[in-house]
Amino acid sequence: MEEENIHHANHGYPLHGGRICSVFLSKIVKGPMKTGDLVRPSIIFFFLLIGAFISLHWIDVVPLAISDISLQKTIPSFNSSVVINCSITCPIHSSKTIKLDESPSSELCPEYFRWIYQDLNPWKEKGITKEMVESAGSEAYMRIVVVNGKVYWKKLKRAFQTRDVFNIWGILQLLRLYPGKLPDLDIMFECGDRPVIQKRDYGGSNANNVTPMFHYCASDSTLDIVFPDWSFWGWPELHIKPWEALSKDLEEGNQRVKWIDRIPYAHWKGGPGSSLARKALLKCNLTDQQDWGALIYALNWGLVRQEMYKSTDLANQCTHRYKIYVEGRAWSVSEKYILACDSMSLLVTPHYYDFFSRSLLPSIHYWPIKENDICRSIKSAVNWGNKHPEKVQEIGKAGSKFIQEELKMKSVYDYMFHLLYQYGKLLKYKPTVPEGSVEVCLETMACSGTELEKTFKMNSMVSGPSDTSPCTMPPPYDPTTLQSFLERKANLTKQVERWEASENT
Ligand SMILES: *[C@@H]1O[C@H](CO)[C@@H](O)[C@H](O)[C@H]1NC(C)=O
Ligand SMILES: *[C@@H]1O[C@H](CO)[C@@H](O)[C@H](O)[C@H]1NC(C)=O
Ligand SMILES: *[C@@H]1O[C@H](CO)[C@@H](O)[C@H](O)[C@H]1NC(C)=O
Ligand SMILES: *[C@@H]1O[C@H](CO)[C@@H](O)[C@H](O)[C@H]1NC(C)=O
Q: Where is the Glycosyl transferase CAP10 domain (predicted)?
């Protein structure tokens, strides 16, 4: 990601332990932020950013609260019964063995876990060799190796903001939740926006010797293995809280304005420049001359930054009956926030999917919008919706229910668990600690970074080993069920088109 690197070079993001930046910025920021201050700014900033999260190619986000590396010796976690000793070395723990004989959980994993099998399909027959992993070459941002329950991080490239740090933090939590249950692992991770493993480079669908690359999203023409993105543990640069707390806020926020009292327009707010679809969307805005049923707001990042410091009085973000989701450079982490609003989500034809989005269905969880005719398509959706408020509320609720119930942190961890477990079983070699890597653990990671980073890490720390097993995997798709799932999705889209057509005649 060349652009990203330029941004780093020019603006010196205070990454994890960036001492020089921290010193510089501490002159701007009055003092370190206290935990109690977090709530409001994060909500406020969140409103400003809905729809804008990916394609962070705006140059100058300055994190709110930057402070130097903590000099504290220990920090209490959110749950104060757990205290982290910032000794900066990892404790010596006995090596863990895999427990295979445990009875499986009676709880069935959500349907979207079935895509794990699809994602690992290229290696199903022959497994994964070290050569395949190492063929990731310069595309990977980091290599994560787990040997006997210990995690090693080899940084290969500088990731944007703290993406890599928070992703590893998530993996450490997974190991804390399910200690001794994962096999040894050797993972290449790509932390940019777009997937990189092109199907066409490996001979299409009968792909051979594919590089296994973990990434936040993929598309129909790529073979990246999708993995939950960093935002589930927090996005400090944007003040987006860890998902566990944020999803609760959203649930509460939904109570504030009933659907029927919401503005009968489709709403989008975000950074407009990052995709053609976003540029096209700007033209759908309400003016004296036109009414496409859409209110579109382009974010001015300078202003956002200012408001971050000042404004305290923004209303709930779920104030419109329809919320538009449109991709930027690739998938956007905003999708879960938009869907969680109880408003009907209007999804402009997505080209990328993350780990859960392939199971979302048109007319059940969202309303599809044609990307090549965005304004007219939004207008049809809004017209139809305002005439069929019950159906629209049902779709809005189903989308939110999917997010609130199937995307709980427990499911996110279980997804990571099953994916990594199966991936580990495919490895044809015993992973070893690569040269140039460092061991990472709660102790080394929790105590560095800005105050906000540390707070988010503490707030997203799991309190200890789970007393239940991971959920039980649903069976893989056989070709027929997969085909019929895709057909159902296509049928549902046609159904929406029929509804819209009947409205226009
Ligand atoms: C933190 O760890 C260090 C080194 O292991 C140890 O000497 C020290 O007593 C610990 N501090 C606390 C408060 O537990
Ligand atoms: C869209 O219209 C609203 C209301 O008139 C306005 O506040 C907003 O700035 C417009 N958005 C863009 C991108 O021009
Ligand atoms: C804090 O952690 C303890 C021990 O893991 C647990 O029993 C307790 O329920 C947790 N409390 C909260 C408020 O999460
Ligand atoms: C999709 O629609 C076609 C034609 O209406 C129908 O024959 C088929 O059974 C439907 N498939 C699914 C999976 O719903």
A: 181-430
